[in-house]
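Why this split exists: single-chain examples teach little about how molecules sit against one another. For that reason, every record in the complexes split bundles all components of an assembly together and asks for one structure covering all of them. Below is a record exactly as it appears in the raw files.
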Amino acid sequence: MKLFAIFGDPVSHSRSPLMHNSVFKNLNYDACYTRVHLKDGTKLRESFFNLKLSGANITVPHKEEAYKACDEIRGFASKVGVVNTIINENGKLIGYNTDADGFMFAIKEFGNIKTILILGAGGTAKALATRFLEDDIKVSVINRSEGRLAYFKEIGCETYSWDNFTTKKYDLVVNTTSAGLKDEELPAPLEMIESLLDNTKFVADAIYGKLTPFLKLAQSKNITFKDGADMLLGQGVLANELFVNGELDKSDIESSMEKSFKL
Ligand code: NDP
């Protein structure tokens, strides 16, 4: 039996075990998926091999550390330096990123999006900003601290910290911060969020499984919003395809995984 896991801190909220085990069970694939609470991201590689894993997902805050832990990086992950999926290929760790395409799948229903403001500048923000630019979307990024903005400036985003931001109009505002994940915080000061929400058509949050304070505010202003559930589904289907290495059909993976969202 193959063993897979998700590494994160926190990780108890993760729905990934349910999603992947639902695929393995429904499609009779001999594998099991568990979760690992990893505090120190530099121990990822050691922990992966100790557990004899065939593959893994990596969540907050270890995705950039996961990039460093790999022997080889393939596809979009090499462009962003952020890895959310690792495959054990004959003892070598191969890193991929399925978050960005998962998010594109999630926002399809918003139609033609031309301008996006990203709140946050972590691993998820990097992946999304890079992917949006590929589709010629104009991307702005705001983060509470300056330090992490350099990457975004370099790839052609407009960048702001809380001190120098003035609201403009956006088609979509996306929260990629972890504010609201385990607390009731907003991703930026209330006044700033209020004015942003008054100037956007759509809102999305990468956090799933709860209505974050950010989404609650969007809801109170009757703005069309979505949480991170479809992004989670999108990235999960792509990761599972890598785990089973072509042995299962993509549409079967998607419908089995979707069932786990109703549990
Ligand atoms: P990182 O740790 O790499 O980045 C976190 C970012 O959030 C940083 O920019 C940090 O700012 C900012 N931040 C943290 N706390 C606060 C706060 N209280 N107020 C304002 N900003 C804050 O995380 P990831 O990019 O890996 O993940 C971010 C979120 O996205 C997580 O909640 C994760 O669960 C979710 N996610 C969901 C997915 C899905 O499938 N739905 C997929 C991927 C991620 P600073 O630089 O100042 O520290």
